[in-house]
Amino acid sequence: MVKIYNVIPRSPGENAGVQAGDILKKINGHGIKDVLDYMYYAAEVNVRLDVIRNGESLSFVVEKDEYDDLGLEFETFLMDKKQTCRNKCVFCFIDQMPPGMRETLYFKDDDERLSFLQGNYVTLTNLTQEDVDRIIRMKLNINVSVHTTNPELRKMMMHNRFAGEKLIYLKQMTDSGLKLNCQIVCCPGLNDGNELRRTLTDLGQLMPNISSVAVVPVGLTKYRQGLYPLTCFDRKSAGETIDIIEEFQRKYLDEYGTRVVFPSDEFFLTAGRELPDMDYYEDFSQYENGVGMLRSLIYEFRSALDTAEWEDGRRSVSIATGYSPYPVIAQLARAAEEKFPGLKCRVYPIRNDFFGETITVTGLITAQDIIAQLKDKDLGDELLISKSMLMSDNDIFLDDVTVEDVENALEIKIRPTPNDGFELLDAILGV
């Protein structure tokens, strides 16, 4: 049961007589635990709602189009609390965060509902058999953090004695026909090499219902005191990992017509290898894991540049980016300058002093590092930054500094841009 916080005016729920403050007990005779139950049972055309109002049991019949929302709102999106992570993974980024940041940044979720609704990854360690049965019954395709299929190694890497046995849920879900996206955070000396081969072999046994697998390198900050000793990938080990992945890509492509497993862009940058062509990434199913993001940006930017016209004649602009993508961003800037001689586009790689120099991705750059490293630089008319540096849906950096604060410190207008080649070119040209 859950309390109805608000009823949207003129919605099917209000038209049927439901009121804010009612306690939702059942939908079509089914008890309601959370948002998944609510969405699943409320999808039908004729919906019976059993509620409690001021201690009295009432029933309402709602007629609506299939899948139309009832118009009921609850105090939280999930209709209850988020499920927190029960693991203490040796590679967990949150455990490597500096102290003193906002409380929400330290929250670890491991919630299958957020996996289905928002694409979050779950480790399965929070799930019970009842949860898995519900996932199968509702046909919820979720995303799973696998990391390794070696039960003992999984227990060790997650510091959770149940982590190994929970792998059985993978088989149950894929046997039922669910399509799962998976990820592997790869740590040198732990789940790379032959252990990675074992994991990819085991996941291959679950085909064709493993839709995709992203392999991403562990990220290590300077705040690892007292944590498991890990090392970053270097040029050699990154290249060896790519080779293993591509070995399995050839196998999967031959057997299933899809590569299935993909290394993140960071592996190619670390190994000093050229990024693959667009076709390599197929449908870009692991884009949000940094798989194919740079190749997509290059393709979009060059496509935009081919047809771009610019009448302004002169403009000076700068871009702040991470060390990893710097060569790519600099190359795109040079291409724009070559086409438009009146354009000057400077690209500045920002060293991550906040988290440590081993963190080289753009999305973890903080405002204080931008200010410290660009305060004496020629930034031109405008400074472009990636929207990935900012907290979702607002203009605040990870260190709680706002875009306006940085503008004031550097005395320049800042334009956040998405990871989209067309919009990046527009921003460079001032469109």
In words, what does this structure look like?
The protein is α/β, with parallel strands linked by helices. The chain folds into 3 domains: 2-74, Roll (Pdz3 Domain), CATH 2.30.42; 94-289, pyruvate-formate lyase- activating enzyme (Alpha-Beta Horseshoe); 296-429, Rossmann fold (3-Layer(aba) Sandwich). 32% of the residues lie in helices and 18% in strands. Strands 1, 2, 3, 4, 5 and 6 form a 6-stranded antiparallel sheet that branches. A 5-stranded parallel sheet has the order 7-8-9-10-11. α12 (367-374) packs parallel to α13. The longest helix has 22 residues, at 235-256.
List keywords for this structure.
single chain, 431 residues, alpha/beta, Pdz3 Domain, pyruvate-formate lyase- activating enzyme, Rossmann fold, 3 domains, 6-stranded antiparallel sheet, 5-stranded parallel sheet, 15 strands, 32% helix
Assign the CATH superfamily of the largest domain.
pyruvate-formate lyase- activating enzyme
Mean pLDDT value: 94
| Total domain modules | 3
The quaternary structure here is single chain
The portion of residues assigned to helices is: 25-40%
Series of secondary-structure elements, N-terminal to C-terminal = EHEEHEEEHEHEHHEHEHEHHEHEHEHEH
Q: What is the highest CATH level, the class of the largest domain? A: Alpha Beta
- Using the coordinates shown, work out and report the CATH topology of the largest domain: pyruvate-formate lyase- activating enzyme
Helix count from the secondary structure assignment: 14
Q: Strand fraction band?
A: 15-25%
Global geometry: globular
Please give the largest β-sheet: 6 strands, antiparallel
Structural class, by secondary structure, is alpha/beta
Estimated radius of gyration? 25 Å
